[in-house]
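1st attempt posting a full record on here, be nice pls
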Amino acid sequence: MTGQATHKGHLSSSAPREVICHSLDSLVIAPQWIGDAVMTEPLMRRLQARGERVTVAALPHISPVYRAMDSVADCIDLPFAHGRLDLKARRHLAGQINGRFDVAYVLPNSLKSALLPWLAHIPKRVGYLGEARVGLLTHRLKNPARGSRPAMVPFYSALSGDADVAQDRPRLRLVPQLVRETQAAFQLPATYFAFAPGSEYGAAKRWPADHFAQLARLLGQAVMLLGSAKESALCEQIAARTPHCINLAGRTTLAQAMAILSGAKAVVSNDSGLMHVAAALGTPQVALFGSSSPLHTPPLNDAAQVLWLKQDPAYQPALDCAPCFARDCPLGHTRCLQDIAPRRVFELL
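the predicted structure (as tokens):
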């Protein structure tokens, strides 16, 4: 419900929750990427554990992630266009929530993300310094210098003010009804694998489509291909090369994609938002890294295995160019992913 707080009780787990006496009403301004949203879950849990009632303000395509967090009481779907200031809409929403919250946690580093809590006159506003927003925040954490930023999960958890955040791991939990309805809607087989071959950031983070197809043929079992509508053509390339693959890219909601990941025998993905979702759901997975670094955004799940040639002493010649964090390979070869053999992924699975 755009611009309004939506109660998430119908999406929460049927398991009983610990009764906590809430002393503060907190508003969290969410990141705009699925993976980042997943990595904020330990922060939500920390806030709730100390008595804060957590409401998350997120773009509609992100909010299903927060509705799978037990520690989040409510969600507000933000009526803003991605990347736009939308000052009139921010003022309008600020008027609606004025007086409702005691503290706000601003997770993105942009100026516009800090505007809503400031316009709503929330007395305590916490966030990292960034984009000339000193006056918009009352409690500011210094951004680590470039190249020295910690892994993203503790980076977000540190906004709680706690010091012992290094071992935080995200957890998501889906409503059984959602899983059952998704299984029925897509007629999922009893056993299947899930591939997430896309990466919205850019081609330098994508394992080749032909490699995914070869892996599917090696598995010889049903494979669900997941992704956004933008990744449907990529998934169709894979599906066309093997009869075991079903292209669901662009056909599912994010909540349905999460349900499919939760029921998979194992997941294979690039460094992407769905990789983090699978990890937080506890699904076994193989995560493929190329231009990015698992030291920065790893899948935090004991059942996850990471393949990154940069850390492979047997791989020669060494990949001095990785991680470059580029959207497209600056050298034009993408060896960091091209040289990960499908057979090796198959053996890990």
